Task: structure prediction
Amino acid sequence: MRRRSRKVNVREYAIALVLAILLLWLLYLVFDIFRKEEVARHAAEDTKAELAALEKREQTLAENLADLKTERGREASLRETYGVARPGEEVIIVVPPDEGNELQELSWWRKLLGYFGL
Result:
């Protein structure tokens, strides 16, 4: 009878080994599905962000086209792009005030020292 129990034990071990291999294979497949789902989710998020950026760019371009349809918009674009002006116009350069170099009234003794070069 002992032989028979050993045959049963070997058979049980073989079945357990096959089931363990099957379980590992199924775990690998489930892990692979989760990994693919994560990659697909990140790709979908990236695509949504890209779509939002493209829609914003489309809106900006539509506004630019609307500006270029007017005479004033075309003129502004030409002036900005090529730096042209109408005949008789001159360049005006606006210089910000220099706040650090305010002239201070010198006292009489500093004027006297300045006269002597000190």
Notes: The chain is about 75% helix and 0% strand. Residues 2-68 form the longest helix (67 residues). The mean pLDDT is 87. The radius of gyration is 42 Å.
